[in-house]
Design brief:
The protein has 141 residues and is mainly alpha-helical. The chain has a single domain, classed as N-utilizing Substance Protein B Homolog, Chain A. Helices cover 72% and strands 0% of the residues. Helix 1 crosses helix 5. The chain is globular.
Length: 141
């Protein structure tokens, strides 16, 4: 199965953000990112987009958590599974940036939730992302 550049970058970033959560690293460290990325077979374009995504998410993590909490019913971000939390942060950040097609961001986020989360993660992530998408006025095209 071949992945496009951004798909590969998103997959890598989910794993990187998971590691950051585990290590309680809530800021972007280029050297730590470079060390992490050494273990992946990733081309320079995907690596560049992954660094952009990871840095953006970590820079805006508090705002993203507030946004996610506002749109999740009865769930605080701290109670969410780490994989769901990092995927939601990444998806919301990309939607707010408005540089990538919202449909691609949403679909790939759901796929990542299914890949790395629980059997309910796909629908959980979908519900929150859709609520955020509507609130910020982003279409799905």
């Amino acid at each position: 199965m071949s992945f496009n550049t951004n798909t590969l970058a998103r997959d890598t970033v989910v794993q990187y953000l998971y590691q950051c959560e585990s290590e309680k690293l809530f800021y972007f460290s280029e050297s730590q990112f470079e060390h992490f990325i050494e273990h992946f077979s990733i081309d320079s374009r995907a690596k560049k987009y992954a660094a952009y995504l990871a840095a953006g998410v970590l820079e805006d993590v508090t705002m993203l958590d507030d946004l996610i909490t506002k749109h999740s019913k009865n769930w605080s971000v701290s109670r969410m599974a780490i994989t769901d939390r990092v995927i939601l942060r990444m998806a919301c950040w990309e939607l707010l940036e408005r540089k990538e097609p919202p449909k691609a961001v949403i679909n790939e986020s759901i796929d990542l939730a299914k890949k790395y989360g629980t059997e309910h993660s796909g629908s959980f992530v979908n519900g929150i992302i859709d609520s955020v998408r509507q609130a910020i006025g982003v279409g799905t095209v």
